[in-house]
């Protein structure tokens, strides 16, 4: 299906053109999400990378490792960002950080997400990512809402300290040289402390190649609806680099609607692809105005699960790989009427053979009920109050680094 448009950088289904097409239905899939017109958006340009369709896999800690990226890439096209790694872990040479930062042998472009709060550590970490590990795109995470880091001023709290934010981003951009650096933001800490418009324009001035917005505050965490109007506001404020919208793309048509409603230059897709790597095929289709199939029968789901489990076992070794696939079982089978026993047996499998054998017990003809198509999945928690350090609100222009504790993020955004 995929063919290269700009060799090396673009994973393209075909060159986009502004036309309108009509939808048809598939005989092999029980449910389709019709797309009737091609959205007026071109390839996404992130530095020297051109990406068509303008779709980015959201970094998800514990999920978007090389096997998962590979699986998603096999279904579709776009830019596939790694799980987040710690700048301090990298600079201090921790084995675990280096293991997390590994790319697949044929991965291109090599795209990685980095977390940190200290300008000099960030600069050095980016230099190592580019120089030692061959990273070709670095995304900086400023969206993490977890208390463990916000209470030290890190994660999604950091952009409030705009001079420090500017220094962190600037050092990363300079450390990367010609390799593009992007930032991923939330709207702010809460509705009284919104930061995204300032942060977006500061990052733009520091030379980032794109700005992505998860359109929720840290206080919202994953609750409620993403507020896409904030993506439109960011697009109006950031004018010289692409703006990417993120939040609540469950089906391919949501991505098309986000582009149409906000004017964003591309979309970042997270939870919608958990247990649904074929969403990336839907996205290619939707951005080309073709019908987007979104509900394969259990037989195809089982094949994807086996493929995913094999890739994880090859990558991590069987013991870790088989543990890692467990978190995906519920996502793959969400909404399918296969019963709790089958799910439990899969989660309890302790070898790849046992896992694949148990997958074989599932009835391949079972289909996804229409009511289950496009339902939210993954994190839904929140809202919850955000803790920041004493006196944090007082001086937005204090450039002092926050200290090692604010850097100690091991999961999530
Ligand atoms: C399991 C999980 C892990 C995540 N880890 C990260 C992360 O490491 N870095 C980050 O920027 N965002 C992280 N996120 C947030 C997503 O990248 C994304 O912004 C969020 O899920 C909203 O997009 P969605 O509605 O498409 O899921 C994570 C989300 C989930 C569900």
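Sequence proposed for the structure above (413 residues):
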């Amino acid at each position: 299906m995929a063919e290269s448009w700009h060799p090396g950088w673009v994973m393209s289904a075909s060159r986009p053109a502004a036309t309108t097409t009509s939808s048809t239905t598939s005989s092999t899939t029980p449910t389709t999400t019709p797309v009737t017109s091609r959205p007026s958006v071109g390839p996404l340009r992130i530095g020297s990378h051109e990406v068509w369709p303008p779709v980015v896999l959201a970094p998800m800690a514990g999920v978007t490792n090389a096997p998962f990226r590979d699986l998603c890439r096999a279904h579709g096209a776009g830019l596939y960002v790694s799980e987040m790694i710690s700048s301090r872990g990298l600079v201090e040479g921790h084995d675990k950080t280096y293991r997390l930062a590994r790319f697949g042998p044929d991965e291109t472009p090599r795209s990685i997400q980095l977390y940190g709060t200290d300008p000099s550590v960030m600069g050095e970490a980016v230099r190592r990512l580019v120089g030692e590990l061959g990273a070709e795109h670095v995304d900086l995470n400023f969206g993490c809402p977890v208390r463990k880091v916000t209470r030290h001023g890190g994660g999604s709290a950091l952009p409030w300290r705009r001079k420090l934010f500017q220094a962190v981003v600037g050092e990363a951009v300079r450390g990367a040289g010609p390799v593009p650096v992007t930032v991923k933001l939330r709207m702010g800490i809460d509705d009284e402390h919104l930061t995204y418009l300032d942060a977006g324009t500061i990052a733009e001035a520091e030379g980032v190649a794109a700005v992505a917005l998860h359109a929720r505050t840290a206080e919202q965490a994953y609750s409620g609806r993403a507020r896409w109007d904030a993506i439109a506001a960011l697009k109006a404020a950031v004018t010289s680099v692409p703006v990417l919208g993120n939040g609540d793309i469950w089906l391919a048509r949501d991505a098309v609607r986000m582009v149409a409603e906000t004017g964003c230059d591309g979309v970042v897709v997270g939870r919608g692809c958990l247990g649904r790597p074929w969403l990336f095929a839907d996205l290619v289709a939707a951005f080309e105005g073709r019908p987007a199939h979104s509900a394969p029968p259990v037989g195809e789901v089982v094949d994807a699960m086996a493929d995913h489990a094999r890739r994880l076992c090859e990558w991590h070794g069987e013991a870790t790989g088989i543990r890692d696939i467990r978190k995906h079982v519920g996502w793959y089978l969400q909404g399918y009427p296969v019963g709790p026993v089958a799910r439990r047996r899969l989660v309890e499998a302790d070898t790849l053979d046992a896992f694949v054998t148990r997958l074989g017990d599932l009835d391949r003809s079972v289909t996804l009920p229409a009511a289950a198509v496009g339902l939210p999945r993954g994190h839904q928690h929140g809202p919850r109050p955000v803790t920041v350090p004493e006196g944090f609100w007082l001086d937005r222009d204090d450039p002092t680094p926050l200290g090692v504790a604010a850097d100690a993020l091991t999961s999530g955004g």
